[in-house]
Amino acid sequence: MEVLRIATSGSVDDGKSTLIGRLLYDTNSIPQDKMEALHAASKRKGLDFTDLSLLTDGLVAEREQGITIDVAHIYFSTPTRKYIIADTPGHIEYTRNMVTGASNAQVSLILIDARRGIVEQTHRHFFIANLLRIPYLVVCVNKMDLVDYSEARFNQIVEDFQQMLDNAGFKGQEVKFIPISSLYGENVASRTGAINWYNGSTLLEYLEQVSFDHEDRNHPARFPIQSVIRPRTTEYHDFRGFAGKVASGHFSVGDEVVSLPSGQKSRIKTIEQFEKQLTVAHARESVVITLEGEIDSSRGNMLVKTNEIPQQLKEISANICWMDQLPLAAGKTYLLQHGVNRVKAKVQQINYVTDVTNHVQVTDKTSMALNDIGRITLKTAAPVFADPYEQNPANGAFILIDEFNNTTVAVGFIE
Amino acid sequence: MTNQINWEFPQALEDEAIYILRETVAQFEKPVLLFSGGKDSITLVRLAQKAFYPGKIPFSLLHVDTGHNFPETIQFRDWLVNTLGLDIIIRNVQDSINQGKAQEETGKYASRNALQTVTLLDAIEEGKFDACIGGARRDEEKARAKERIFSVRDEFGQWNAKMQRPELFDILNGKINIGENVRVFPISNWTELDVWNYIVREKLEIPSIYFSHEREIIERDGLYWPYSSFLNTTADEVPFRQKVRFRTVGDMTCTAAVLSEADKLEDIIAEIMEAKISERGARIDDKRSEAAMEKRKQAGYF
């Protein structure tokens, strides 16, 4: 069964939580006791309808303030697919959570309030979906019930969005517009008949048919080594296997590989998945690879095919999203974690910080604040074997860790 | 819309969990697997077996025994440990009570559920464990839905929901400060159904109380409570025999039974798909307040 990961973002009161509640409700994913708890909680708040948004706002502070602070993960499945929704906050001060939630998504779901149209946060959400190069973008124009289900209003919003796309979209991005009312369930999982001028698919129908062609399986083969398995038992006395998850592409038994950074060459002897012997391992599969002969490889090293060597970077130019209260300072040294490999990295320069709403680059910055998105140059203590994020996302992203408090302070996308 | 059952386990979830377990062993000095004897921790043991094969599982199990466990769970635990040749550390809530660190609750709702946090934190300190691997899933409860895969806890085991580290792609940052430790949740993205489908696919053994059996129960607050010497009952609560099974395995004082005839895994799965009550709906410990889980997590409950 396939797993489809979706990230949702919306501004305050766009009805995002209600939409998710509606998806769960209409797919029979809410057990009766949870439904009863919802009825009771809605009543306590003095509402005369069942507030489906209360399903997802999990933390006490969120329920108090009626907003979403952190990423919540929500699960439902249909007979064809398992869905994971990363429900992310829409507020500008939670941009980092938005990026976090979107980082694993194949589909980005952007909500627009039909009355308000495109707002500052729509630009931000769109920018983030682009930054992460999420292949599918679903724009749900919500609260159609509050604009009399007006076709003209919907078309106007589509046109405005199209303008944004013309300026900043990327090749291969698929965009779908759907007029919905999450409160009444129109075009979410079914049609209520309120909108007769729209013949396209409902949100759920669209999600059910999104084809993820596993693009990362066609990318160059990358195998970051997590650990070396050496049982040293009588039965497996000489066993030496490299454990890891294929980041991108695929490896077959017999492939000639190079271990980086040592540059030593070898051939794949076996690919193992527990007691099973495989002939090929694809992207995202966790396996153990054994090689012909002894080569020097350990955690943080990478196996690649001899004809697909990645670039060796000691100076990295990257777009980053800054995620810490403490600002990024030019000249400071951080730990850079690329996959499972860590190296020290010094911030050489802040090239610019992007004004996300107006797509303007501000160049005279010496620091970056929480939630800023911009371009920096880093110098690393050892080479990093990475691909440009645009070409191979699975081997083109990294995080920065503050060495003093160990927290994750940034995510970067290699140019 | 009717629920059709999909019996196929999503393989991506196993690959992800194995990756997380390998990261845990690589990034921490002394991980430990929190074992309860329930289906989720049994699943974790299987995943650990696969992640390091043909090597041995490179960490111990830790069981916090409340003394109020179902005897079937304890029997199963001992069987599993023997069969797979695992290392296990057992710490008892009774000892924490005897040492005056924890106090037994009173009244008819008394349970040792909250007390086990004390024993757990002591065991973590004693064993110098910097990573505790747990079988919590995000679909179980709404505070858990917000939790990271590597969840940092302070010296007192506390979870700070508002200050969680961002977790991006599959890049896991296990760096911590002295005194802190991390709770690791490899099956975060699994649902209850995923776990059952995995148990079927892997042909895993599970404790007998998951299957329909006859036992003495009482009815209280619309739930069926297993009758035992640990349960404080009132005079009008008369036990009767009934065919039941358990959907989760907690203490005998805080896990409600469901009426069921399901005695095969396939029947259990079919029952779950039709069930009108959520998994944790049968957990009396969650019913204390709307934010019961969040409060316990802040206090160091895993």
Oligomeric state of the chains in view: heterodimer
The profile of the biggest β sheet of chain B is:
6 strands, mixed
Question: Poorly predicted ranges of chain A (pLDDT <50, ≥5 residues)?
Answer: none
What is the overall shape of chain A?
globular
Identify the notable features of this structure and list them briefly.
A: 415 residues, alpha+beta, six-stranded mixed β-sheet, six-stranded antiparallel β-barrel, 37% strand, globular, B: 302 residues, alpha/beta, four-stranded antiparallel β-sheet, 8 helices, 30% helix
Can you give a write-up of this model?
With 415 residues, chain A is α+β, with helices and mostly antiparallel strands. Chain A is 18% helix and 37% strand. Chain A contains seven helices and 24 strands. The longest helix of chain A has 18 residues, at 151-168. Chain A is globular, with a radius of gyration of 24 Å. With 302 residues, chain B is α/β, with parallel strands linked by helices. In chain B, helix 2 (39-52) crosses helix 6 and helix 6 packs antiparallel against helix 7 (265-274). Chain B is globular and about 55 Å long. Chains A and B meet through helix 2, helix 3, strand 2, helix 4 and strand 7 of A and helix 1 and helix 2 of B.
Write a compact overview of the structure shown.
The complex is a heterodimer of chains A (415) and B (302). Chain A is α+β, with helices and mostly antiparallel strands and 415 residues long.
Lay out the secondary structure.
The complex is a heterodimer of chains A (415) and B (302).
Chain A: E1 2-9, H1 16-26, H2 32-44, H3 60-65, E2 72-77, E3 81-87, H4 95-102, E4 107-113, H5 120-131, E5 136-142, H6 151-168, E6 174-179, H7 203-209, E7 222-229, E8 241-245, E9 250-252, E10 256-260, E11 264-273, E12 276-278, E13 280-282, E14 286-291, E15 302-305, E16 311-322, E17 328-329, E18 333-338, E19 341-355, E20 360-362, E21 367-368, E22 373-386, E23 397-401, E24 408-414
Parallel strand pairs in A: 1-3, 1-4, 4-5, 5-6
Antiparallel strand pairs in A: 2-3, 7-8, 7-15, 8-14, 9-13, 10-11, 10-15, 11-12, 11-14, 16-22, 16-24, 17-21, 18-19, 18-23, 19-20, 19-22, 23-24
Helix pairs in contact in A: 4-5
Chain B: H1 11-27, E1 31-34, H2 39-52, E2 60-65, H3 71-84, E3 88-92, H4 93-98, H5 116-127, E4 131-133, E5 150-153, E6 181-184, H6 192-202, E7 213-220, E8 223-226, E9 240-246, E10 257-259, H7 265-274, H8 292-298
Parallel strand pairs in B: 1-2, 1-4, 2-3, 4-6
Antiparallel strand pairs in B: 5-6, 7-8, 7-9, 9-10
